[in-house]
Design a protein that fits this description.
The complex is a heterodimer of chains A (about 625) and B (about 650).
Chain A (H helix, E strand, L loop, with lengths): L6 E7 L5 E6 L1 H18 L15 H15 L28 E5 L10 E10 L2 E7 L3 H10 L15 H7 L1 H17 L19 H9 L43 H11 L10 H10 L26 E14 L8 E13 L5 E5 L3 H4 L3 E4 L3 E2 L9 E4 L5 E9 L7 E11 L2 E10 L8 E10 L5 E5 L6 E5 L2 E7 L5 E2 L3 E11 L35 H11 L17 E9 L14 E3 L6 E15 L14
Parallel strand pairs in A: 6-23
Antiparallel strand pairs in A: 1-2, 1-5, 3-4, 4-5, 6-7, 7-12, 8-11, 8-22, 9-12, 10-11, 13-14, 14-20, 15-18, 15-19, 15-21, 16-20, 17-18, 21-23
Chain B lengths: L13 H13 L1 H5 L8 H10 L6 H10 L8 H16 L9 H17 L2 H4 L2 H15 L8 H17 L8 H10 L5 H17 L20 H4 L13 H12 L7 H17 L4 H8 L8 H13 L8 H13 L5 H21 L1 H10 L12 H22 L6 H14 L12 H15 L10 H8 L1 H5 L4 H11 L4 H9 L4 H10 L1 E4 L7 H19 L11 E4 L6 H8 L2 E3 L3 E3 L2 E3 L10 H15 L5 H22 L1
Parallel strand pairs in B: 1-2, 2-3
Antiparallel strand pairs in B: 4-5
Helix pairs in contact in B: 3-4, 3-5, 4-6, 5-6, 5-8, 6-9, 8-9, 9-11, 10-11, 11-13, 11-14, 14-16, 17-18, 18-19, 18-20, 19-20, 20-21, 20-22, 22-25, 25-26, 27-31
Classes of the chains: A alpha+beta (about 625), B mainly alpha (about 650).
Chain lengths: ~625, ~650
C-alpha cells in the first residue's frame, strides 16, 4: 500500500550524542522485513542486486553511527552540498541542501560491507535534542538513494532519472515523518502554545484545555501552564531573527530534562502502531487528562470529526486576529529597489456550540496584492480558484490558524529612511540615521514601539557618542540600541522624523580564528597565505582595507541562513503596529455568518510585527537579488 | 551492576525493570546478558503489570511490544497474556491502578505481539480468534460515551490485524459497515479507516463476499476458511460484487471531512487503488479532494500530488495550478524551512514527470513560471540553491525550445543565469570557503551541464555543451568561475596555487587565459565535469582568437591531470589537446612543484633584477622613488608576474 505514512522507529539523542529516548514499532518493522524479503527475491534476477540492510539498530549502534556521520560530514546536519571534504556515499555527495534534513546513517560501518545504510532518517533539531524519525519506505527507494550517494559524477543533476526530487515526490511517508518529528519537537520543548488570538479589550485568550475546563466547570485540572502568548513569529519556524548570530547547529547545553512520560503518551496515542492518526497535542493531552464522561454526547445528526473530540458548551463568541510580519530590505540606492513583503495569518477562536459552519468574505483582497492563500484543513476550498474571496470552515476547538497569506505592503513602509556607517579609522565609525516613521499612516494605526539596533557581532563596542533627535540610546557589548518609540507612548495619527548622528568606537580588531571544524566549505584556511599585512600602510582606503581584512576570516554561513549576516553592516528595526493590517487584509464582523444561525459576538483585531526589517548601510556592501520582472 | 546476572535473578522492583529495559534498548552485550531470562520474561512482566501499584505499567507494556521477538513463546504464556488482557479490560477504570490509557495500551501491545510473533500461523487458531473476538466486543458499542477512545483503539487493532491477514474480517464487513454508519463520536475516524481497509482488501484479493450481508454473526468470531487454507487458494471466485462495493465507496467518499490530516493520508492510500479497480470516475475523486492542495498542511498537499500521479489524465490542464501552488508553498515564510525545500523538490519531480509525458507544452509552463523562481533576499541559502536549480531547469527548457520559437532565447538564458547569480554574488568578495561560493558554483555547474546526460563516459555530452547558449555566455563569467573554482577546490598542491591566483589579481588571470595552458585537475572530489567546465571556458577564448576548426591544427593546448583521471585521453582527443604532466612551466614558474622550495623562485629573482636595472636609469625625485619602492612590492604579483 504505497502512499501511506508509517514510522519504523524514533530516536532522540542529546547533545552528548547518546540516545535518551527510543521507540520502535515492531508491526511496521514486520512490514519492512516482508518488503525486504520480496525485494531481495526479485532483485536476484536483476544485474544490479544487493540486499538491503533489514535490521533496526540498537540504540548504541545508532548513536555511534550518528557520531561517525557527524565526523564525516562536519556537523550533525552535514555539509548539504558537495564540497571537497565530501566522501562518496555520504549525504553531501548527493549535493542537495535537503540532505541536511533527510540523512542516512551507516550502521556498524566497520563490521559489514555494503548493505548497512539506514535511510531516510528525518533529522529535526530542537533545543539540545536531535530527533530522528525513520519512516517506512519501500526498499527500492533505499536502493535508489544508495545509488544516488555513490554515483561517480559531479553532483546533483536536474532532470536525471531517479533524482532525489522524484524520490521525494513519491514518498509521502517522508513528509509525514517530518510532521511527526516537528510534533515531537514541540513536546520536547514544551512549545505547545496555540496561535495567539488577541481580544481588543483584554489580554490574549488561553488554549483548548482552558476553554474546556472553563466550560465544564472544573478549573482545577488545568494541567498545563497557561499558553504563552506567542508572537506570530514564534509559532512558526524561527526565522533566525537573531541577526548575525553564528547559527546554531551545535545545541546549547543545559535546558529542561526530557519529559519521557509525556513523549510516551503522545506517541502511543498519536500513532499506536506507528501509523500517525492525529498529531494534535492539545487533543491528545486533553483526552488523556479529561477522558469522556457520559454527558459528552455525540451530535444527534452529524458525525463528530476526529479533529474535534469535544464539543464546546457555554457562552458563544468568535474571535479573529490578523497577524502580520513585515520583512523588509531597505537599500536607499537607486540601482536596487527596496523590498518589502508581508507574511500574514488569520488566527481564530470559535467558541460555538455544536458543529456549525462559519463563512465570511475576505475584504481588501483586491487591494492587498495577496499572492498566495492557504488554509487550515477545516476550511472547505472549492476546486477552482482558491482565491475566490469567501472562506467557509467548520472550526475546531481552541485557537487555530485559519489561513496564511503572503502579500505586499499596501501602505508604504512603516519606517523608511537611511542608515550610513563609515569607518573613519580602523576602530572608529561615524554613522547617521535619518528615518521617517508611519508616514502616511492614518488614525487607527498605532505604533506601539519601535527600536533600531545596530549589531556589530564581530567588534566590541567600547564607547559611543551622539544624541538622537528623539528617543534614547543604550549600548551592549556588541550592539547599539536606539529606542525611538517606547511602549506606553504609542505613536498614532501622525508621522515623525527621527535623526541620529553619532560615532562608535570599537576595541582593536583581532583576527578571529575559528576552529577548523566549523569551516564547512571549501578551502581550509591556508596558513602560508600571501596576504602581507605590512603592505597595508600605503593603502589609502581604510574602509576597503578593513573590509578585506575582516572578510578574510568570515565563517561560512549555514545553509539555513539567507546570507552571511556577519559580512554586512546594517541596522535592524523592530516594531509593533496595531489598529489595522498593512496588507489591507481584514474581516468585517457584520459579514461573518454562522450556520445554523446563532447570535454570537464577533471580535476582530490586528497586530503587525517586524520580522527581518533591515536598513542596509548605504555606504557598504549589501545582499540583493534580481527583481522578478520580465 | 554485575555483567551477568545470576540465573535466578528476576526483575521485580521498578528499578530492576528500568535497568533491564535500558539494557535491551542499548543492545549488544548489555542486552545479551539477559538471555537466560527470555523464557520467563513475558510471565514476569505480566505479573508486574497486574500488581496494583506497580508504577511502570505503560512503560513495561511498551517494552513487551518492542522486544517481543526475544521471548520464547509457549502456548501457556499466550493464555496468560489473553487472560491478563481480559482482566484489565473488564476491570472498571479507577483512574489510578487501571487507567484508560493502560487499557488502550494493553490492547495495542497485545495485538502487536500477536502480529510480530505471527501467532495466527504458528499457534492454535483459537488464540487469534479470541483476541479478535475481544476486540469486536469492544468495538460493537457504537456511540457509547466514556470508552469511545478505547473503541477507537480497538478499531485500530483490528485494522492492523486485517492489514497483516487480509480478508480476516471480510465476512463481517456488513456489520462493520453498519457500525461505521452509526458511530458519531470522534472515534468514527477509526471505524471508517477499518471499514475502508476491509473494502480495500476485498478488492485487492478479489474476494467474492457481500459487504451488505450480515448473516455471519459478529461474535463468536471464526477465522474465514480461505485464510486457514493457506491464503493462496482463495482465488476460486474472482468476481467482485461491483455494485455493492461501489455503494460502499460512495459511502466512504462522503466521510473525509471528519478525518484528521494523518487519517486522510491513510484513507487516500487505501481508497486510490480501490477506485482504480472499481473503475470509478477519477473526476469524482478530483472534485472531492483537489481542494486540499490549498491547505497549508504539507501532508495534505502531498496527498493531492499522489492523487495526481495516479490519475494524470483526469488532472490534465491542472498542472500549472499545482505547480503554482507548490511555488507559493515554497514562499510561505511561516513554514519550517524543510517544507519549503520539499515543495521545491516536489515541483522539480513534478516538472520532470510532466515533461516526460508531454514535452513541449509542459516545458513552456516551466518557462512561463521562471520569474517566480527568482531567489528572494531573505530566502535561506538552501532555498536559494534549489531555486537556482529550478532556474537552470528553465534555461534547459528554453534551450530546447529555442529551435522552434523565440529568437531571443539565448538572451533570456543569459538573463536567467545572471539574475539568478545576483542572489549569491557575495561569493565575489567573501573568502573562498564561504557558503555563498559553494552555492554559486553549484548553480554555475548546474546551468552548464544540467541538460547533458551527466555521465562522464559519454563524449557526446561535451559536444552538446559546446553548442549550448549558456556556454556561449560563459566567457563573461570567466572571472567568476575563477573565484568559484578557487573556492570549490580547496585542498592539494596545485589547486592551492589556483586559489591564490584567483583571489583577485585580474591581470594575471587574463594572462593566464590567453596563455592557453589549461590545468586539468582531478581533485579529491573526483569530478571531471567541474574541470571540463573550466577547460571549455578557455576553449571558447581560443575559438574567438583563432577562428579555426579544432581538428588538424597543431596541438596548442595542454591538459594536465593531477590525479588519475580515467578518460583524460578521450577528452583530450575530443578537444584536440595534448596531455602533459607535472611539473610544467606556467607563468614563468614551475607548476606542480612546491612553491616553498627556494630554487623555483630563482627565475623570478633573475627577472626582477633585470627590471630593477632598468628602473635605475629613470631619474625620479626622491618622493617618487619612495612611492615607487613602497608601491612596487605590493603590486609585484600583479604587474610583474604578468611580464614573466
Amino acid at each position: 500500500m504505497s502512499g501511506g505514512c508509517s514510522i519504523r522507529a524514533i530516536w532522540i539523542l542529546n547533545s552528548l550524542d547518546s540516545v535518551v529516548f527510543s521507540r520502535r514499532f515492531p508491526v511496521v518493522e514486520k512490514r519492512w522485513q516482508a518488503a525486504c524479503k520480496s525485494e531481495n527475491e526479485n532483485a536476484s534476477e536483476e544485474s544490479f542486486s544487493y540486499a538491503v540492510y533489514s535490521l533496526l539498530p540498537a540504540d548504541s549502534e545508532l548513536a555511534s553511527a550518528f557520531v561517525e556521520r557527524k565526523q564525516r560530514e562536519g556537523s550533525a546536519r552535514g555539509f548539504g552540498i558537495r564540497v571537497s571534504q565530501s566522501s562518496k556515499g555520504s549525504d553531501s555527495w548527493v549535493d542537495d541542501p535537503i540532505t541536511r534534513h533527510i540523512v542516512g546513517l551507516y550502521i556498524n560501518k566497520e563490521e559489514e560491507g555494503e548493505n548497512n545504510l539506514l535511510w531516510p532518517l528525518i533529522l529535526h533539531i530542537k533545543g539540545n535534542y536531535f530527533i530522528i524519525v525513520l519512516p517506512l519506505v519501500e526498499p527500492r527507494y533505499l536502493k535508489a538513494y544508495t545509488r544516488l550517494c555513490k554515483r561517480s559524477d559531479c553532483g546533483n543533476a536536474i532532470g536525471a532519472d531517479d533524482s532525489l526530487s522524484s524520490l521525494l515526490l513519491d514518498l509521502p511517508s517522508i513528509t509525514g515523518a517530518f510532521m511527526v518529528a516537528h510534533a515531537i519537537g514541540d513536546i520536547i520543548s514544551a512549545d505547545v502554545a496555540e496561535p495567539e488570538v488577541v481580544v481588543s479589550a483584554s489580554p490574549s485568550v488561553g488554549g483548548l484545555l482552558d476553554s474546556l475546563t472553563g466550560s465544564i466547570g472544573i478549573s482545577g485540572i488545568s494541567s498545563r501552564a497557561k499558553p504563552v502568548a506567542a508572537p506570530v513569529a514564534s509559532s512558526v519556524p524561527s526565522n533566525t531573527a537573531v541577526a548575525g548570530a553564528v547559527a546554531a547547529d551545535a545545541p546549547k547545553i543545559g535546558s529542561r530534562p526530557l519529559d519521557k512520560d509525556a513523549l510516551r503518551t503522545f506517541i502511543s496515542s498519536s500513532m499506536p502502531f506507528g501509523t500517525p492518526l492525529d498529531l494534535s497535542h492539545s487533543n491528545i493531552f486533553t483526552i488523556k487528562v479529561n477522558g469522556f464522561s457520559s454527558s459528552d454526547l455525540p451530535p444527534p445528526d452529524l458525525k463528530q470529526p476526529a479533529w474535534k473530540p469535544y464539543l464546546y458548551k457555554g457562552k458563544q463568541r468568535m474571535l479573529f486576529t490578523v497577524h502580520e510580519t513585515i520583512h523588509a530590505a531597505m537599500y536607499d540606492r537607486d540601482e536596487i529597489p527596496d523590498n518589502i513583503s508581508v507574511s500574514g495569518q488569520i488566527n481564530c477562536r470559535a467558541e460555538l456550540e455544536g458543529l456549525p459552519d462559519v463563512s465570511f468574505p475576505l475584504t481588501g483582497l483586491n487591494t492587498a496584492h495577496v499572492e498566495g492563500l492557504s488554509f487550515h484543513p477545516c476550511a472547505q476550498v472549492p476546486e477552482h480558484r482558491a482565491d475566490k474571496q469567501a472562506v467557509m470552515f467548520s472550526p475546531p476547538l481552541g485557537n487555530f490558524v485559519l489561513m496564511r497569506y503572503q502579500a505586499t505592503c499596501s501602505l508604504g513602509p512603516p519606517i523608511k529612511g537611511f542608515y550610513q556607517l563609515s569607518m573613519v579609522s580602523e576602530d572608529k565609525g561615524a554613522f547617521l540615521f535619518k528615518l521617517h516613521l508611519m508616514e502616511g499612516y492614518k488614525a487607527p494605526l498605532t505604533m506601539e514601539f519601535c527600536t533600531v539596533s545596530m549589531p556589530f557581532p564581530r567588534r566590541r563596542v567600547v564607547s559611543f557618542d551622539g544624541i538622537p533627535s528623539i528617543g534614547t540610546v543604550s549600548t551592549t557589548e556588541h550592539s547599539v540600541e536606539w529606542k525611538i518609540v517606547t511602549s506606553g507612548r504609542g505613536l498614532s495619527g501622525r508621522s515623525i522624523e527621527a535623526t541620529f548622528p553619532g560615532t562608535v568606537k570599537f576595541a582593536p580588531w583581532q583576527t578571529q580564528r575559528l576552529p577548523s571544524s566549523r569551516s564547512g566549505f571549501g578551502i581550509i584556511a591556508d596558513e602560508d597565505s600571501d596576504v602581507e599585512t605590512e603592505n597595508c600602510n600605503n593603502v589609502v582606503n581604510i574602509e576597503e582595507f578593513l573590509m578585506d581584512k575582516m572578510s578574510n576570516d568570515l565563517p561560512p554561513a549555514d545553509l539555513e541562513e539567507p546570507f552571511c549576516w556577519q559580512a554586512y553592516e546594517y541596522a535592524k528595526v523592530s516594531f509593533k503596529i496595531v489598529g489595522a493590517s498593512l496588507s489591507g487584509m481584514s474581516i468585517d464582523p457584520k459579514a461573518v455568518s454562522i450556520y445554523p444561525a446563532v447570535k454570537a459576538p464577533i471580535d476582530f483585531s490586528t497586530q503587525v510585527t517586524s520580522g527581518d526589517y533591515i536598513l542596509w548601510n548605504t555606504l557598504g556592501k549589501c545582499p540583493s537579488t534580481a527583481a522578478e520582472k520580465a | 551492576m554485575t555483567d551477568i546476572p545470576p540465573a535466578a535473578f528476576k526483575p521485580v522492583s521498578p528499578q530492576d525493570w528500568e535497568t533491564l529495559i535500558d539494557d535491551f534498548q542499548y543492545g549488544g552485550l548489555r542486552r545479551h546478558k539477559w538471555t537466560t531470562l527470555s523464557p520467563v520474561l513475558l510471565d514476569l512482566a505480566l505479573s508486574s503489570i497486574l500488581k496494583r501499584d506497580f508504577p511502570l505499567k505503560l512503560h513495561l507494556l511498551l517494552f513487551l511490544e518492542e522486544f517481543s521477538d526475544s521471548f520464547l513463546l509457549e502456548p501457556i504464556s499466550l493464555d496468560r497474556l489473553l487472560d491478563s488482557l481480559r482482566l484489565v479490560i473488564q476491570s472498571p477504570a479507577d483512574g489510578f491502578h487501571i487507567t484508560l490509557p493502560l487499557k488502550d495500551q494493553f490492547l495495542v501491545s497485545t495485538t502487536s505481539i500477536f502480529i510480530s510473533l505471527d501467532v495466527f500461523n504458528k499457534f492454535d487458531i483459537r488464540y487469534a480468534e479470541s483476541l479478535v473476538e475481544l476486540l469486536l466486543i469492544i468495538v460493537n458499542r457504537p456511540n457509547h460515551g466514556p470508552d469511545r477512545q478505547t473503541r477507537a483503539v480497538a478499531c485500530e487493532c483490528l485494522r492492523e490485524l486485517e492489514r497483516f491477514y487480509p480478508c480476516l474480517l471480510s465476512d463481517i464487513a456488513g456489520h462493520l459497515w453498519s457500525l461505521c454508519q452509526n458511530e458519531r463520536t470522534h472515534a468514527s475516524q477509526s471505524y471508517i479507516l477499518l471499514f475502508t481497509l476491509v473494502i480495500h482488501n476485498i478488492v485487492a484479493l478479489e474476494s467474492n463476499v457481500s459487504v451488505l450481508n450480515t448473516s455471519v454473526p459478529l461474535v463468536p468470531f471464526n477465522v474465514p476458511q480461505s485464510l486457514l487454507a493457506g491464503g493462496s487458494s482463495n482465488s476460486t471466485n474472482t468476481c467482485l460484487n461491483y455494485k455493492e462495493l461501489r455503494r460502499a465507496m460512495a459511502f466512504l467518499l462522503e466521510s473525509p471531512q471528519v478525518l484528521t490530516p494523518c487519517g486522510m493520508v491513510e484513507f487516500m492510500a487505501m481508497i486510490t487503488p480501490v477506485a482504480i479497480s472499481l473503475e470509478l470516475q477519477p473526476s469524482m475523486l478530483k472534485v472531492q479532494f483537489f481542494g486540499m492542495v490549498y491547505s497549508y498542511n504539507p501532508i495534505l498537499c502531498h496527498v493531492v500530488l499522489m492523487l495526481y500521479l495516479r490519475f494524470m489524465d483526469a488532472f490534465d490542464g491542472q498542472e500549472s495550478e499545482i505547480a503554482r501552488r507548490l511555488m507559493l508553498m515554497s514562499r510561505e515564510a511561516q513554514h519550517y524551512l524543510v517544507f519549503r525545500l520539499l515543495a521545491l523538490h516536489w515541483l522539480m519531480g513534478f516538472n520532470e514527470l510532466i515533461s516526460s509525458r508531454e514535452v513541449k507544452k509542459k516545458k513552456a509552463m516551466a518557462v512561463e513560471m521562471r520569474l517566480s523562481f527568482y531567489p528572494r533576499v531573505f530566502d535561506p541559502l538552501a532555498l536559494k540553491a534549489l531555486k537556482l536549480d529550478l532556474l537552470a531547469f528553465c534555461s534547459i527548457c528554453i534551450e530546447s525550445l529555442k529551435s522552434e520559437s523565440a529568437s531571443d532565447a539565448g538572451k533570456s538564458v543569459d538573463k536567467l543565469f545572471g539574475d539568478g547569480l545576483v542572489s549569491v554574488s557575495a561569493f565575489k568578495w567573501l573568502p573562498p570557503g564561504s557558503t555563498e561560493t559553494a552555492v554559486a558554483f553549484r548553480a554555475f555547474r548546474e546551468f552548464l551541464i544540467g541538460g547533458s546526460s551527466h555521465s562522464a563516459t559519454d563524449p557526446s555530452t561535451i559536444r552538446t555543451l559546446l553548442e549550448s547558449t549558456i556556454f556561449n555566455t560563459l566567457q563573461q563569467y570567466g572571472r567568476w568561475s575563477q573565484y568559484a573554482y578557487g573556492g570549490a577546490f580547496g585542498g592539494k598542491g596545485m589547486t592551492e596555487d589556483l586559489g591564490i591566483v584567483s583571489k583577485g589579481y585580474g591581470p594575471t588571470i587574463l594572462k593566464w587565459q590567453e596563455d592557453g595552458i589549461f590545468p586539468l585537475v582531478q581533485t579529491d572530489i573526483g569530478q571531471i565535469w567541474k574541470i571540463c567546465l573550466y577547460v571549455l571556458v578557455k576553449m571558447r577564448t581560443y575559438f574567438n582568437q583563432a577562428q579555426s576548426a579544432l581538428g588538424g591544427v597543431a596541438l596548442k593546448y595542454e591538459m594536465v591531470s593531477v590525479e588519475d583521471v580515467r578518460n583524460i585521453n578521450c577528452l583530450a582527443d575530443l578537444l584536440s589537446y595534448k596531455v602533459a604532466s607535472l611539473p610544467m612551466k606556467y607563468l614563468g614558474l614551475l607548476l606542480g612543484a612546491s612553491f616553498k622550495a627556494k630554487n623555483i623562485w630563482d627565475g623570478v629573482v633573475e627577472k626582477i633584477e633585470k627590471s630593477l636595472a632598468g628602473w635605475k636609469r629613470l631619474y625620479l625625485s626622491k618622493g617618487g622613488r619612495i612611492t615607487l619602492i613602497k608601491g612596487t612590492p605590493s603590486n609585484l604579483p600583479i604587474a610583474k608576474l604578468r611580464d614573466l
